[in-house]
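Predict the 3D structure for this chain.
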Amino acid sequence: MPKLNVSGYRGIWGKDLDEKIAFDFGRAFAKMIKEQGGHKILIGRDARKTGPQIFKAIKLALKKEGLEGEYAGIIPTPSMLLLARKLSFGGGIMITASHNPREYNGLKFINKNGLFATQKEIEKIEENRKNLIEDEKNFSQKENEEEVCDNSSYQKIHIKEVLKNIDVNLIKSKKFKVTHDPINSAGSTITKKLLEELGCEVSQINEEQNGEFAHEPEPLAKNLKQLAEAVSKNNSDIGFAQDPDADRLVLANEKGEILNEEYTLALAVKSVLSKNPSDVILNMSTSKMCEDLANNYNKKVFRTKVGEPNVVEKMIERGALIGGEGNGGVIYSKINTARDSLAGIALVLELMAREKKNISEIIESLPKYFMKKDKITFSGDLTLLYEKLKAKFKEASTNTLDGLRFDWPDSSWVHIRPSNTEPVIRIIGEAKEENRINTIFNQVRLIL
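Done. Predicted structure below.
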């Protein structure tokens, strides 16, 4: 059975997750919220087919604990986090498996601060779940119809928060043509509304919120051929792709080429720093492009462990305006303390409008790196592996905050860390020259 962690719980429906498991998690979470003095929980979901079943189980669990569950319908994860904070909910539960394939679903737990549950809170939820008595595990579902939800008022709150923190008139003046792929899920309606508020001419593909994902849901270049074709066909200025819960964002340029997901955060960092210089918070596996951009503005970069909650925690600690993860996760704290694709879209459009350049021209101005990502099955001794790597790369500086990272004076780096969900080692790195990063990867693979 998969483990609950700060990123939530995900599993294959009918194997690792069903109504009973969701009910138990919901009841365990409700007990913690009650202890914290909370009374009302916001529940949202992405468009997966199993979402309604999980919602009913969660609502029943809250009811049995004497808490009220309010339904936010199909809505992005970043919207849920913002709403929990803005509307003073006791907490929230987002029903989503994020970028996992359609056979998965999951739960993300939100605390009263509008942040993902902390490690300590996750441990409390798990403790509560394990200590449920038999009577509390008694699950009997009577409701059959899905609850109808008009969540337009919730959408407006998120959209308003984005609009008040960017130059709307500047973006409107450019009348951008945009193609958008929300992969038949949570980002469809709200993102179109935001783009129209920004004066964009919007073309959508895969817009119906039916959970029938038209392609593999992770927003990677290999999965976004439809977007590439649509941008070219529509003669769009830019294309936007989201994952099913709309926290990640990937771009297509005006030529219909899908950009590496690392460029999303780099462009957002450039957009923020050019108008309001700030320290930048990145995880250990994010491109050095963002670090170079921060250096241009004499601002510091702080690295964290991989994982959105780790980046957010450091952003709050440092009072940083911009941060995120290289997988297309933009965190702009003036809008939201979460990876937020809507904030990312607005920042990228604002940058294009301010610089009066198309997206390819702006990309050309960014620092140049060659990045590689790989994973290798591994079940050996991590300590021994790390010692072998340190012996091999004596000339590099080392960082053991999250796995092992090596940095060289020529700006090359590689990050090796065990996966939280698979028996594999993840390897990510980059260099100024392609041959250089290929050489580093080959050396790491030989040791693995």
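The domain at 370-447 is CATH 3.30.310.50 (TATA-Binding Protein).
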